[in-house]
Every structure is written in structure tokens, then in C-alpha cells.
Amino acid sequence: MARLKGILKIHGTLDDLTFYKTQDGHLVKTKSSISKQRIMTDPNFQRTRENGSEFGSAASAGKLLRAAIRALLLTTSDNRITSRVTKVMTIVKNYDATSARGLRNVGVAISQAGAKAELKDFDFNIDSPLSSTLFKPFAINATTGVITIAGLVPSTDISFPIGATHVTVRGGWVKIDFAGNKAEIQLTNATNMAISNTATSVTLTPIAVPAVVGTGLFLLAVEFFQLVNAVQYTLKNGAYNSLSIVQVV
Amino acid sequence: MKANKLTISTVFLLLATTSLFAQSAAKVLRVKDGDTYVLQDIVKTFTVRLLKIDAPEQKQKSGVESYRFVTGLIGGRMVEYSGTSKDRYGRTLVSININGLRLDSLIIRSGWAWHYVNYDNETMLDNAMQEAIGDSLGLWSCGSSSVCPPWLYRGYNAKNKIRYCKGCSL
Known about the structure:
The complex is a heterodimer.
Chain A: E1 3-5, E2 9-14, E3 17-22, E4 25-30, H1 36-41, H2 46-68, H3 70-73, H4 81-93, H5 106-109, H6 113-119, E5 139-140, E6 147-152, H7 154-157, E7 166-177, E8 182-194, E9 200-204, E10 215-228, E11 231-234, E12 242-248
Antiparallel strand pairs in A: 1-2, 2-3, 3-4, 5-6, 6-9, 7-8, 7-10, 10-11, 10-12
Helix pairs in contact in A: 2-4, 4-6
Chain B: H1 2-21, E1 24-33, E2 36-40, E3 45-50, E4 53-54, H2 63-74, E5 78-82, E6 92-98, E7 101-102, H3 103-109, E8 114-115, H4 123-134, H5 150-153, H6 158-164
Parallel strand pairs in B: 3-6
Antiparallel strand pairs in B: 1-2, 1-5, 2-3, 4-8, 5-6, 6-7
């Protein structure tokens, strides 16, 4: 049943029109005239079925990545992370030049340099990209997984939100076997610093080398806190926190 | 003649300046929460908010207790207030005295509000809050790690409210 909100803001379905509200505003869509059965069987929809199959595999690859880094993602992602990861995986899958149409997948494509480049610098919080938060260069040792930031001065090298008193930097080393649907993350130590002019050399060392054989992703996260009465409280549900894939090997 | 005019305008200016900082008397009609009250003076009824403290929201742990404490302290009584500026909700930002004592320091020292450190840095209020924490008074009855400042609580989602603002059974 349609519901009138205000003058023209309707929620619900009227005949073939569905009115709904998203964070982009009030939208309306029409009901599809094509049945699912026809899409699944009609030869004219062969290309649609192929696209659907590839999209499904890209979505699964995205879910594998999100699940693997959940420990970092909980405090550092925006609310459209699922669709954005699926989108980038769909682009990655296009680098698969060997599989037939409808069977292209991330597991094969990820060996290509171009595919890895698509994943590199992916920001899990689009509202706070790492490149706009951390302005100090960092080095990654791809063998040991150690990330080092020499002489980090939080007050000048980090763009911090109003109210933040402390910042935590931490990393993660994920290895993902997209073809075998396996993933493992090893988190690094976290370095917590007061936002001051004091320079700190940050060394983030993973607990171990991930055992899974596959594509290696190195992640770097920056989280902000407000210190009140010796307790560090997260700021605005992590809206200013950053998490990015800084290297893919 | 010119000298007289100058004297009159100087006196007028002094009176006007003094009235800006003067304290006015009003009756507390209603306590909305620990830091927001409805006052009534001779000409009007208006809502005020204490300038330097932030009391727990009514939905927050200890919010009701804070409200009850302040109601017991000033409910229905005459208070002296000063302040003219308004916040974004139209509330007049004030300091309130009751029997010559500052209400904000009374509430903080009794452990029923936070010193609003984002907007004020008065050391006395900071010390009063630390003393209240040390004495485990009011909302600090089970320490300072299980309560969260109202200014953060207001923006928290359910997950963070559980994580930071769980409070303790009073």
C-alpha cells in the first residue's frame, strides 16, 4: 500500500510503480515485464545469463575479501562497502582473458598485473580515503609483511577530525585464494598515539605469515578516538576512519 | 550642555553594559533533563541550557537519575541566571546560581554531569569532575570506563552505545 509522505513523497507500490526511499532520496521504479523463467530459459537471454553468472562470481569474491578482513572492516567501512567491493571485483574479473564468456572469474584474473592494480589503493571508507588522511609515506616489506612509517608526526602528517585526541594505526596482511575460496588474515600490532607534535616511528608487524597460498593484500588502517577520563572513545561511529589496500602481490 | 549630554550617554552606556553581565532572577518551571530547564521570569517563559556541562540524555544510562537530582535541587525554585546567547535549538545558554552557589559545579561535583570539555576548559570544573569520579558519585558509581560522554552518545549507533555506554546498575 502506497503511503503519502509530505506532498509528493510516496512509499510503496502502486500497480507497476514502486516508490521507495534511499540515502539518495525518494526513487521510483517500474516492475519488470520479463519473468525470471524467461530469462533463465530463453535463448535470447543467453548474454544476460552469462553476465549474471559472472556477476555472481565477482560478488562471491568480494564477500570472501570482506569476510577475511572483517576485524578491520568493522570500524572502518562506509555503508556501501558491499556494492563497492562487488563493483571492483567485477572490473577485476574482466582481466580474465582465458575463460569463456560467463565463466570469467576473479580467481583467474587476479594473476594479471592490471587486476592487481585495480585492487591497489581501494578505500573501504569512501568518505575518508587513506590518501586524504595519512600524508606520510610508508614502506611495505612484501616478504615479512612489516609496514613502517618513519617519523610520523600525528598533528601534521595525519588529517584528523575535530574532537580527536588520539589516533591508532594498524595493518593487516591477507592472503586470498579466490579460486579455492580460502582466505586468511594476520593482523599487525596497533600503534596508538596522542595527536601531538611528537614524532613516532611506527612499525607494524604481523603476528605470522598467512598460511593460505594466494594473492597477498596489505592493508593499512587509521582510526580516531577522543580521550575523556582516561577512556578512548571512537568518534562518530568511525566515520573518519580510513582503511585501504596499500599493496597487492 | 555638551558636557551634560556626554555624561548622560556615558551613564546610559554603563547601565547597558552592566545589564549584560547582571544576573536575573527566574523561577524553574520544569527540568527537561540534567542541563536543560524551562524558566519563567516576570515577562516570559523560556528554555535555558547550562553552558559548561553536559548531562546524560534521558535515554542514556544515569539520565533519569541525573534529571531527578537536578529536579530535587532546583525544581520550582527561584534561581539567578546570566547569559544571553542562544544555541541552534533556540535555548538560551546560561550560568545559573542557586543560593549563591554555581549550579554547574554542584551537578558535576555530585557526579551527575560531565564537564563539557569540547566547549569549556575551566580547571575548577575539571577538578570537580575528577573528585566525583574519585568518590564514585552519581554516574561514576562503577568507574569511568563504562559510561560515555553525552556528546558522543548522541552520535553513536546501537553497536557503539553497547560498547561504550553500557553503564552499571545503580
